[in-house]
Design brief:
By secondary structure, the protein is mainly beta. It is built from two helices and eleven strands, in the order αββαβββββββββ. Helix content is about 5%, strand content about 20%.
Amino acid sequence: MLPDAPSAQAAASGPCDVYASGGTPCVAAHSTTRALYGAYSGALYQVKRSSDNTTRDIGVLSAGGVANAATQDSFCAGATCLISIIYDQSGRGNHLTQAPPGHWPGPLPGGWDNLAVATAAPVTVGGQKAYGVYISPGTGYRNNRTNGVATGDQPEGIYAVVDGTHYNQWCCFDYGNAQTDGVADERAIMETVYFGANRQWGYGDGTGPWVMADLEWGLFSGVNAGTTGTRPSTTAS
């Protein structure tokens, strides 16, 4: 921490503490802006500096608190930094790294996904500066060797915070659980939350964006395919 970096009070509990208290603990807890547990004091993410390809872990200001953005600012001064790892705070090691090439069912063009620019999504959390993950087309993170994540028809929940003003009409901006071979080889083999204004499959009222489910081979705004009149466009940022 730099000498003039602001301090932050530890949170009494975080979202994953709430889930754990309900008997449904987090098995993958990702955030570049804050700790998701009141007692978490480890690294949130890693940045890689373009000038020399060195890396630096970015932690929290205090246990349960906000990311130490000053560490990133100091390390990345005068250079471009990319987010190279988003650490799993759950202790299960389900970290997210650069997504490898996908297949549908043959190889898709473009190779490896891009890494997010570390300064592209500045935010304020509880009065403290932090950086989110700015997902532009072609950017992606993945973990194909997970630990404790739901498989098959096992129940699971997905919690995500997105910028309500940053979206497009394409498929697909997702966060959640997907097949581990990178191959879109069957329907209904993903469980992810989609945010955007795509109309190829399911969609809701208005012009979007909508919060929908991407289950592979289709987006769903409700239990049935196609438009669902009870799914309003998202208006909050």
